[in-house]
């Protein structure tokens, strides 16, 4: 008993959150990660909302959301806030393609609630669906946005399809990066505020379907630094 107490006393325990940034080795809680397309289009939010769908692969809280954005003409701006809404799925939609159906959860994230990770420069195209205009070879700056440890998260159910909708309000020059991963389900959509409807996103050059770059991940781990250099990674549990 005494030896056990001494052994415990010698262990220095420090809990540190692991990185909020996402790499493929971190895993995912969706059909597959929709990673960004190098040299592809970036879709302007245009003071509107963009959305794309995913299928839940593991029931539980949506604690972590990662997506990629870029900046028209490399006009990088401060981000004070943006709003994320998770919608249910309308598989047919009034126009023959799937679209968001009903809002299930929404949260506005302020500075300090997310991190911005600059990415290696890549020459990319720009597309504004609200005016149906595009510019090739427009910009090089882009970044990964990471939201981790979400309070009061949405609880998803395995096998269900949801829509991730993001709204940057009136922030100018910001766009959501096109995904280069295999197309999932139907196209991503943007919301036409004038006609009050969701419109599917189509590549303005090729006419091909477009998805947007994002990933829903498992909860980030907590790193425990133990004595003698031992390291353990534990999954954070929500009370």
Report on the architecture of this protein:
With 239 residues, this protein is mainly beta. It contains one helix and 19 strands. The strands form four sheets. Strands 2, 5, 8, 9, 10, 11, 14 and 17 form an eight-stranded mixed sheet that branches. A six-stranded antiparallel sheet has the order 7-6-13-3-15-16, with no helix packed on it. It has a three-stranded antiparallel sheet with strand order 1-18-19, with no helix packed on it.
Run of helices and strands: HEEEEEEEEEEEEEEEEEEE
**What do the pLDDT scores average to?**
83
Quickly count the helices. 1
Based on CA atoms alone, the radius of gyration comes out at 20 Å
Based on CA inertia axes, which overall geometry fits? globular
Largest sheet: 8 strands, mixed
Strand content: 35-45%
Q: In total, how many beta strands? A: 19
Oligomeric state of the chains present here: single chain
The SS-based structural class is mainly beta
Tell me roughly what share of residues is in helical segments: under 10%
**Unreliable runs:** 1-19, 220-239
How many angstroms separate the termini?
32 Å
Total number of distinct structural domains: 2
């Amino acid at each position: 008993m005494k030896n056990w107490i001494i052994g415990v006393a010698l262990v220095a325990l420090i809990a540190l959150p692991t990185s909020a940034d996402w790499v493929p080795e971190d895993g995912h809680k969706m059909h597959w990660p929709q990673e960004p397309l190098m040299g592809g289009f970036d879709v302007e939010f245009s003071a509107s909302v963009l959305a794309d769908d995913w299928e839940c692969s593991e029931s539980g809280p949506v604690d972590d959301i990662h997506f990629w954005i870029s900046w028209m003409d490399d006009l990088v701006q401060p981000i004070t806030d943006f709003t994320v809404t998770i919608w249910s799925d309308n598989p047919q939609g009034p126009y023959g393609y799937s679209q968001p159906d009903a809002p299930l959860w929404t949260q506005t994230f302020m500075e300090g609630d997310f991190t911005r990770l600059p990415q290696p420069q890549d020459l990319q195209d720009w597309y504004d669906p609200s005016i149906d205009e595009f510019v090739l070879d427009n910009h090089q700056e882009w970044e990964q946005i990471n939201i981790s440890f979400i309070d009061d998260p949405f609880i998803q159910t395995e096998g269900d399809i949801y829509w991730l909708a993001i709204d940057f309000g009136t922030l100018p020059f910001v766009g959501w990066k096109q995904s280069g991963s295999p197309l999932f389900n139907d196209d991503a959509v943007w919301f036409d505020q004038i006609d009050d409807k969701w419109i599917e996103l189509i590549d303005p050059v090729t006419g091909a379907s477009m998805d947007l770059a994002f990933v829903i991940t498992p909860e980030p781990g907590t790193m425990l630094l133990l004595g003698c250099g031992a390291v353990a990674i534990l999954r954070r549990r929500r009370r």
